[in-house]
Amino acid sequence: MSGVGLVWSNLFRKKVRTVLTLLSVLVAFVLFTMLRSVAVAFDSGGFGPAGVDRLQVSPKFSIIDPLLISQLREVERVPGVAAVTHADWFGGIYQDSRNFFPKFPVSPKSYFEMFSEFAIDPDQLEAFQNTRTGAVAPAGMAARFGWEVGDKIPIEGDIYPKLDGSRLWEFDLVGTYLHGDRRDETGSGVFLFHYDYFDEAKQFGQGQVGWLTVRVEDPEQAAEVASAIDALFENSLNPTRTATEDEAQREFARQQGDIGLMTTGILAAVFFTILLLTGNTMAQSLRERVPELAVLKTFGFTDGSVALLVLAEAVLLGVVGGALGVGLGTLAMMAIEPQLQQFFGLIEVTWPVVASALGIALLLGLVVGSVPALTARRLSIVDALRAR
Predict the structure, then answer these.
(1) What is the pLDDT of residue 377?
(2) Is residue 387 within 8 Å of 291, Cβ to Cβ?
(3) What confidence category does residue 259 fall into, taking pLDDT thresholds of 50, 70 and 90?
(4) CA nearest to 280, candidates 17, 3, 61, 15
(5) Do residues 37 and 348 touch, judged by C-beta distance below 8 A?
(6) What's the order of all strands across the beta sheet hosting 81-87?
(7) Per-residue pLDDT tens over the stretch 162-188
(8) Mean pLDDT of all residues in the chain?
């Protein structure tokens, strides 16, 4: 029998105990994979290279405070600014509250010029620009709800009623667009409609927007441009806080709490428990096999080789459980990505997360197996056979 076969056979001498321990390790690494992936998404902000030259201008004190559309004209005159557009949070419900997706009133042409990762047919963009009640949706979202160009999309407003007191907003779908990442494939993304219609028809807040998006001429000068924009409105009734798109997204995420710290605390507790559980399993297995280890030494196995066999069992238990946990965690993340992406952009299990999980699995096996391996190395043949 080969060394691997011997290790595998010894590991599954008590099948029920080993399987239960393996499942515990598996669950721990499922949690690790999912929680670390979410934490990485919170830290990264969810934006790729497409947003490196963009700034987000937000209200200084609270995201529920408004900015004025007139501020856009002033920002356009700041040196280093190449283009500016705006958006706002609409809220609203389509048919059922479970059908959540973000909805932004925007200026059609300037918005799509700003976000180069959005691809839309030029004729549909022209129709969006010229249709007062026009709207466009990600292609995946349209497929998800069965929308076709020409359909009317009813949205119940939960924040903004209309001037006539009605909360029913109806939009004409004039086109669809593609997003540069996998969000479109999952049916998520942002439903966009015409700001001019929204501003004219809403009951309050005319001339207000939620935030501005700025493209800078030179990304290396982004910090200086951001400071200049904030200085422009420092003593106004609508002061601003300007940051890169990536940093603005991280600040939004941090309002939910320190996700990195919370996930670290949860995982520390989980892995401490798993360390005790697997350590007890290996110690119990060693006690049951003391005479057998003595026989191996009698047949010519060195102290080091016997210790290595015991250590390999713990490492195999940790690595197999870790690998299975990472695989199941990845599948689980793929299943819930559409819901999470609507808030935090693209969330996926990255290779660094996988590598760190497998590294921890290996370390777990080494730590758990070190004491039993050292005990096996020091085992006396006479004392072990006498104990039998």
Answers:
(1) 87
(2) yes
(3) low
(4) 17
(5) yes
(6) 81-87, 211-216, 54-59, 240-244
(7) 999 999 999 999 999 998 655 555 556
(8) 85
Phi, psi of 102 (to 5 degrees): -65, 145
Using alpha carbons only, what angle is made at residue 126 by residues 138 and 155, rounded to the nearest 5 degrees? Answer: 45
> CA nearest 271: which of 40, 15, 30, 39?
30
Contact 191, 101 (CB under 8 A): yes
Q: Please list the residues that pair with 55 across neighbouring strands.
A: 214, 244
**């002033």: which residue's tokens?**
74
Tokens coding 258: 């320190």
| Residue 149: partners with Cβ closer than 8 Å, 6 or more residues away | 124, 173, 174, 175, 176
102 Cβ partners below 8 Å, 6+ apart? 89, 189, 190, 191, 342
Query: What ranges in the chain are assigned the alpha helix state H?
Result: 3-11, 15-44, 70-76, 108-114, 122-130, 139-145, 195-201, 222-232, 245-254, 259-288, 290-298, 303-344, 351-377, 381-387
β 103-106/191-194 pair status? parallel
Q: CB-hemisphere CA count at 13 Å for 147? A: 26
Q: What distances in angstroms separate CA 28 from CA 32, 340, 365, one per listed residue?
A: 6, 21, 14
Contacts of 382 (CB under 8 A, 6+ apart): none
Q: What is the pTM of this model?
A: 0.68
368/362 Cα distance (integer angstroms):
10
What the block records as the tokens of 32 is 């690790």
Amino acid occupying residue 17: R
Could you tell me which residue, 218 or 298, shows the higher pLDDT? 218
Q: Token pair of 170, please?
A: 């109806």
Q: And the tokens for 245?
A: 């798109």
